[in-house]
């Protein structure tokens, strides 16, 4: 593989591993001066406007109504519910590292929904799901989440919504290229800001400079750049590599939260982190590490 091919791959993996892993810590900084739904809404609406403006200026056209509405629905499931609930949970003092650990279960839920949609699954993958659920139970048995059941429930619902949206989105017609991401972010931003108004969120004081910088980082790096990096990987590498961020992100988030955010994880939570990561590795890489034996069917005797 030539250097010109390797460089975009390294950049895309860096975006998913480090940038997406850091967004949990940055969200925690942002919600200190922003109401959660409002912050998430501003993040995705501004990112969607930027990306849509770029696409229209460079000659792209809006898709037809059906794929447009499909993309809007996926944006609500993945970004408005999936990411919005994580933002609210961190506003309720769930540590950013713990939030990332729970979100790491998305590949496990994705496998479950894939089974319901008729996609074949293996016993090894179901074993990974069982181990992951054990990790979730352990994570909720003591420490930060045990005292914040609503925060834990919101992240879990958000993860389920992201997983369902990912599977459903692969089976419906969506706009091609970056247009899908732009519409998804615009739809999510509108829904989140409407939720902010309906829930009575108010800005009592102007956000701090850190708060504005957090939203800018989340919009440009966490949304526009990282989402398009993910799309690049999906088109150019195996699914195992593209989804490997799921077990790298929680490690990055925990290190940032404990190293710079003053967060503390108990020994049980560290153990749960390891168990969940092991489960995600089984689900995402199991078919490559332990391939199934080929089934040899006897040939019919020649007549």
Name some characteristics of this structure:
single chain, 303 residues
Describe the protein.
This protein has 303 residues and is mainly α. The chain has one domain. It is 75% helix and 0% strand. It contains twelve helices and no strands. It has helices at residues 3-30, 36-57, 65-91, 96-103, 106-116, 123-140, 149-169, 178-198, 209-236, 239-242, 245-260, 267-289. Helix 1 (3-30) packs across helix 11. It is globular.
- DSSP helical segment count: 12
Output mean pLDDT: 83
The largest β sheet comes out as:
none
Distance between the termini: 50 Å
Structural class: mainly alpha
Using only C-alpha atoms, the radius of gyration works out to 20 Å
Outline the fold blueprint.
Blueprint: H1 3-30, H2 36-57, H3 65-91, H4 96-103, H5 106-116, H6 123-140, H7 149-169, H8 178-198, H9 209-236, H10 239-242, H11 245-260, H12 267-289
Helix pairs in contact: 1-4, 1-9, 1-11, 2-3, 2-8, 2-9, 3-7, 3-8, 4-11, 5-6, 5-7, 6-12, 8-9, 11-12
Brief synopsis:
Helices cover 75% and strands 0% of the residues. It is mainly alpha-helical and 303 residues long.
């Amino acid at each position: 593989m030539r250097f010109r091919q390797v460089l975009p791959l390294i950049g895309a993996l860096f975006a998913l591993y480090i940038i997406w892993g850091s967004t949990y810590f940055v969200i925690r900084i942002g919600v200190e001066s922003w109401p959660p739904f409002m912050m998430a809404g501003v993040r995705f609406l501004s990112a969607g406007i930027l990306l849509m403006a770029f696409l229209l200026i460079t000659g792209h056209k809006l898709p037809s109504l059906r794929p447009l509405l499909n993309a809007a629905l996926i944006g609500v499931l993945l970004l408005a519910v999936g990411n919005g609930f994580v933002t609210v949970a961190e506003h309720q003092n769930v540590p950013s590292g713990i939030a990332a650990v729970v979100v790491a279960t998305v590949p496990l839920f994705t496998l479950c929904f894939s089974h319901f949609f008729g996609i074949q699954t293996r016993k090894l993958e179901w074993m990974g799901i069982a181990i992951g659920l054990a990790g979730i139970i352990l994570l909720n048995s003591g420490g930060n989440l045990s005292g914040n059941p609503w925060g834990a429930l919101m992240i879990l619902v958000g993860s389920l919504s992201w997983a369902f949206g990912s599977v459903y989105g692969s089976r419906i017609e969506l706009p091609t290229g970056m247009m899908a991401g732009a519409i998804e972010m615009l739809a999510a931003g509108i829904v989140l800001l409407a939720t902010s108004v309906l829930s009575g969120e108010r800005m009592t004081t102007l956000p701090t400079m850190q708060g504005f910088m957090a939203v800018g980082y989340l919009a440009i790096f966490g949304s526009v750049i990282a989402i398009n990096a993910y799309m690049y990987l999906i088109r150019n590498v195996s699914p195992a590599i593209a989804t490997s961020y799921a077990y790298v992100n929680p490690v990055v988030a925990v290190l940032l939260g404990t190293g710079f955010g003053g967060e503390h994880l108990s020994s049980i939570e560290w153990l749960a982190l390891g168990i969940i990561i092991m489960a995600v590795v089984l689900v995402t890489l199991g078919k490559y590490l332990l391939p199934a034996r080929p089934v040899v069917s006897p040939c019919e005797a020649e007549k």
